[in-house]
Sequence to fold (723 residues):
Amino acid sequence: MKYRVAIAGALVLISSSATAQEDDEIPEERVETVLITQEKIAKIGGAAHRVSEEELKRTDYANPESVVQQVPGVVVRGEDGFGLRPNIGIRGANSDRSKKVALMEDGVLFGPAPYSAPAAYYFPQIGRMVGVEVFKGPGSVQYGPNTMGGALNLITRPIPYKFSGGIKAEAGQYFTGRGHGWLGASTDWGGFVAEGFHMQSDGFKELDGGGDTGFNRQEFMLKGSLNTDYSAEHFHRLNAKIGWSREHSNETYLGLSDDDFAKNPRRRYAASALDEMDWVRSQLQLRHTWEWGDALSVESTLYRHDLRREWFKLNRMGEGTPIFDILNDPTGRRQVLYEVLTGQEDSLDPSENLFVGTNDRRYISQGLQTKARWKTEGEGWANVLEAGLRLHNDSIERYHTELGHRMESGRLVRDGELLLNTQNVGETYALAIHVLEQFSFWKFAFTPGARLELFEQTLTDELANTEVVGNQVVLVPGMGLSFEVVDKLSLLGGVHRGFSPTSPGQASDVSSETSINYEAGVRYSDARKRRLIEAVGFFNDYSNLLGECTFSAGCDETQLDDQFNAGAVEVWGVEFAGHWAFEAGAFTIPVRGTYTLIQSEFQSAFNSENPQFGEVEVGDELPYTPEHQASLQLGLEWEELSFYATGTWVSAMRESAGQSEDDLTTDDQLTLDLNAGWRFEEGFSITARAENITNDTGIASRRPFGARPHRPMLIMLGAGYEF
Fold:
């Protein structure tokens, strides 16, 4: 029986008689690398971590924030409870929309516009990934442009070397559901994999007057490959990846007053009834790999990503009093505005109107990147030299409008004409060149490297009829070192420069964000026995912290995307990570734990209109940076049964820069998740998962407009089949 599947214009033949190769039949140097190995991490000379497919399956999280919280040094700021638009930071770097982290999928930047507008309003579904890599040390210099804390790389499903596939469905509370399916195959000369992922929920929040607070998302991916003879000295592989995704979510920035939060953290005010997000994204990648034996390889990738999003949401009230201030202290005149927000009172005049705006944005990210790796070795030494180049172009087109509404009997009624607030285009052309070397001799491993960034940026304001052009040239060096004290036990250290560029259109006195980052520690690693113990201390010396006004930070339309110099900051801390698999007769007991301590201190004073900073004094601490974060996972595996318990604790975070114990903070967060699985027959499985069984719904954040909760307890049941 034969099936013919068209992949990027080529026909891949799949049949019961096809000679699809198994992994062990393919020369080792020809097998596609999916995830960096634990052995390679040990030689990087800096802090790096991986989350394997096996580890992702253990917890089966749909929220990417829950996944990365298991990596030491990585912190998140909760927002919607499902991680639709994650806020991820590393080692004190600003977590707002993950814009200080180099975000990649299969080694390619996936942010909507990584240079012109790096805020990650799109983030891939973590449930379809087979691995996550986090680079925090000097090994991150090869990535960019935003590497203040490090880099994060998501790994998608590779093309399988035999006919295989899988399907899984889950359902749970709040009509939450997930569906995931994939199918792939290979012959000696090519292959394909097709994958689809769907997730939905009615949401856990309760809108005053009734209404939907849920979402639905779909993602589809198709990969195809053609290759020459696996045994040939000169080997060529051509891969194509096509992706399409969309989301509709009834999400809002509007939170609650603290009093209302204490009564019912799931409540949503009537003023947010019209809020909704819609976006559509497409991606196209074409990758060519040439390998000459196991000594030389060259990989080149041509890519283009398009994203169109529209977020219709409450922006402000007509009087001009910030909504955050209204909810933080609803007394006097603010009491009247609070009652309008909640629908208890009608709008009596235009000053009490509510302005709901559409942030219509279009993003393009495209380019060509190539890297070459040359391996040489001799008696007692080995060297890997990597050189890469990326030509990149990205842009953001903003078209922001507002509509006035008045509150009538708990409902929003249109009142006024459409207002055009913002119409501009920001664009960047960038050239990035990097060189990285991994040289090992005796028990030493050196990893020097550098990245050179050259880019030109333009902001065209179509309302003001102005154009601002700027150029930047930045060198980002780094150096890592490790020394193997005894077998599997190494000392490591490193230093590198952190960098985050300004966005198009900034004032001439606004500088890029830069820092010198130091780290040192010890690592014991035994991949065969699933064992790792690591302790790393770090010190990040910011010469200039770059602040930016965004809606998610609480700024208004007039300040949107304005950046400012926040001066010198010192961030230091300690990271611990360990996992160990114990054998007890027929049982395996995996244990995994992490702990992160982060301290920060501004070294200069300044004033900012960004409410997350405000009036900063010397000695103030960074906002949304927890002092303590810890996770612990215990497992029990026996034949076809498995059970895992994962606990995560995050200490309170400041809502704005400060040092007083009386300042506003989020709540401590303690969550406990349970996951059980049973594999029966051949390929069939049943899973049960309970997240946040302590039902901790404390305040995740108050920015931009009031207190919002963590997601309450969620129970999911699922069934799947793989072959």
Remarks:
- The radius of gyration is 26 Å.
- The longest helix spans residues 333-341.
